[in-house]
Amino acid sequence: MAGLTLLSGARAFAEQLPVQPPGDGRPAPGEMGLQMSNSPIADEVHAFHNGILLPITILICLFVLALLIYVVYRFNEKANPQPSRTTHNTLLEVAWTVIPVLILVFIAVPSFRLLTNQLVIPKPDVTIKVTGNQWYWSYSYPKDQGGFSFDSLIIPDDQINPAKGQIRLLSVDNAAVVPVGKIIHVQVTSSDVIHSFTVPAFGIRIDAVPGRLNETWFKAERVGVYYGQCSKLCGKDHAFMPIEFHVVSQQAYDKWLAQAKKQFAAAPSRDQFAQIQDARKLNTPDAH
C-alpha cells in the first residue's frame, strides 16, 4: 500500500509538468525507470542497471518468495507435528555460500568496466570548473574557451515564465553551455560544505568537496536542455540549487562564448551575491 501511495504521488507530480520536447532532460508524465540518457556513460549505466542488476534482483526476490512459500507450506506445525532434529547440511551450506559469491563475481566484471570508463577521462575538448556554494553553482571556463566565470542561481517561483520553457525548481538564470558531440571535462570542488554535482541524462554524479578537486566527464550526443540537482543534504536551501546545461551546435557554442565573455567579464563578487540573493528571494520561508 505504501508503494502504491508513493507511485500515485509521483504520477500526480509528473502530470503537473508540461509535455517535454524531444531531448529535454527532465522528468515527463508516465515515465518509469532511469531518465533518458544523452551520453555514452549514461548508456552504459542504463545497460548495467536494466540488463544485469534489475534481472538479478528480480530473480533473487522471486526465489526468496518461492522459498518462503515452500517453507511455510512444507514445514509448518500441522504438517510436521514432530520437528526435525537436523542441524547441518553440508551441500546446502556450501551452495548458499558459493552461489552468492558467483553472483557477485558476475556483477563485478561489468561493474569494474563501467567504473573504469567513468574514471579514465579521454582527451577533453572543453574543460569546465564547477564550484558548489551555499546554495548555488559557479562555472569557470578556461582561457582557451574565453576565460570567464559566472554564478548560476535558481529562478524564483514568482519569476518563472513557462512560455520561455522555464521550469520551477530546475531553471536557472545563467545556464552552462556545451557543444554537442564533444568531450566535456568537468572539475568539481566546493567553497563551503560537501555538495554533489549530478546530471542524470549525462550519467554523472560526483561530490564537490572543499579543498579537493574531483573530476568527471561526459559527451552529450543530442542538443537540448538537461537538468540536474545537488544530491547531498548541504543545508536548508539544498533543494534550491539546480543544474542546467544547454547542449548546442558548435556554431551556436562559439557564438555563446563570444557573448558570455563580454557578459561575464565583470562578474559580481561574493559580497555582492548576498544582495542578489535577497533581491531574488531565494530564501523562502519553507525552504528547509
Give a brief description.
This protein is an alpha+beta fold and 288 residues long. The protein has five helices and ten strands; from the N terminus they run H-H-H-E-E-E-E-E-E-E-E-E-E-H-H.
Query: In whole angstroms, how far apart are the ends?
Result: 28 Å
The low-confidence parts are 1-23, 283-288
Biggest sheet features: 5 strands, mixed
Strand order of the largest sheet: 3-2-1-5-8
Strand fraction equals 15-25%
* Total of helices: 5
Derived from helix and strand composition plus strand pairing, the structural class reads: alpha+beta
Query: Strand-and-helix sequence, N→C?
Result: HHHEEEEEEEEEEHH
Radius of gyration over C-alpha positions, nearest whole angstrom? 24 Å
Shape: elongated
Q: What's the average pLDDT?
A: 84
Tell me how many strands there are. 10
Give the helix proportion (percent range).
25-40%
